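Purpose: get a first structural picture of the assembly so the mutagenesis plan has something to point at.
Setup: two entries, given in the order below. No constraints added.
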Amino acid sequence: MTKRKVFFISDRTGITAETLGGSLLTQFPKIQFTKTFIPFVTDVTSAKNAVSTIIEQTKVDGEDPIVFSTLTDPEILSIIATSSPNVFDLFGTFVGPLEKALESNSSRSAGKMHGISDTTAYETRLSALNFTLNHDDGLSPSDFHEADIVLMGVSRCGKTPTCLYLSMHYSLKAANYPLTSDDFNKLKMPEVLRSVKNKVYGLTIRPEQLSRIRRERRPEGEYSKLSNCRKEVSIAETLFKAENLPFLDTSTVSIEEIAATIVQAMGLH
Amino acid sequence: MTKRKVFFISDRTGITAETLGGSLLTQFPKIQFTKTFIPFVTDVTSAKNAVSTIIEQTKVDGEDPIVFSTLTDPEILSIIATSSPNVFDLFGTFVGPLEKALESNSSRSAGKMHGISDTTAYETRLSALNFTLNHDDGLSPSDFHEADIVLMGVSRCGKTPTCLYLSMHYSLKAANYPLTSDDFNKLKMPEVLRSVKNKVYGLTIRPEQLSRIRRERRPEGEYSKLSNCRKEVSIAETLFKAENLPFLDTSTVSIEEIAATIVQAMGLH
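Result (structure tokens, whole complex):
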């Protein structure tokens, strides 16, 4: 397999460079990439250090490295540009055309996307995260009327990670409610969720995968047995359909995809 | 303030489009943007629907909207391109030059960045998140030798959100340990952290901000009083310095920036 070195250079966290650069690299599945992240490149000294690092790490390769940059300062970028013939200016490439389209000059300031550019928005996000942590696994269901979304499903189907992502990324107050044997016997929407039914979204999962995940946590007993997982999943899905709830199978879907699907389906963005 | 409509079109979650597009827009602070996200545009029908939405929402504006696309399929993109003269192809712009630099054809498949492209990596991430949830707020410190990082600081200085981000984004097992009155009296590294000292990173915060955050949670009592917050923060910082621990003031820094700083300082990426 061909190997190539890739550097992600940014004046702030490097998240934008990593996101787009990483996404572009997934288009080349036959090449094995070694990634190095150099964030907080904010001045001439740190830019020169980054160039040294890049040259040092690639001089035995015989191949020029790929360098993804989201730097905003043209002077800093011009230093980084000396590190390789393959420097991709992910940010600056669009600034000029965008200035034209918006008929406005850009501020050319260091990346603010992941800084605290808006204090109110930032506090909303932290308060959403606190709500989510305090309403995990069916905690305090009497507060669910304050939630933006309530995820429902059997234990270990992905509710908690999805809720955390929904609050962290979309600033949503995301609660979740685990379906347990009580609910299975009744085959009805849990009473406590009835008044917030329009906020409820179901998650389901393939029984084989559920059983595997549960065995890691509790290898013995009924909880992780495939037959029991089959029964629970089947009842959960019957309940979703009977109550006409939207639901999603999380088996082959990442947290980001589950979250984006829910946000779109519930019109929450 | 000038207003402009912006659309983010993607064939998957839309996170890459939102990240880079949003980052570019922060360079135009004088314009107020109304953002619409249209993820999962995967076929001709959904592309045509997206175009209708864009045209519908902007026909009274008299200004062409900005459209950020991370679509990978040229046919779908060509449909979206009819929605506005200002369509920015954030992804395709770099695919050609990258093919040349890598001397390899791209797979031109839909964005995989936020899908489960690597099952092992995905399970590592979920297991990091579980570890983090089970080692929040000083829980099970006897497991801290398994952690990649242990954050230490006074209550409400940002430890939990940072740990969650570290696990969610960087797949790190992040534990945290709250400094309490016991530790304040001793003015020494808590005994239980001694053997993992090389994994400990301190967080601190301005006392005024700490007091405000704590008041929201518990308006009365010693806990949120400014004088008490001053004392706690001062002792925490003295302890960090005495023990020669790296530490960061989180007061004006976002979760992403705190996390990126820690990851770089501790060489964890």
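Chain A has two domains: 2-102, 119-265.
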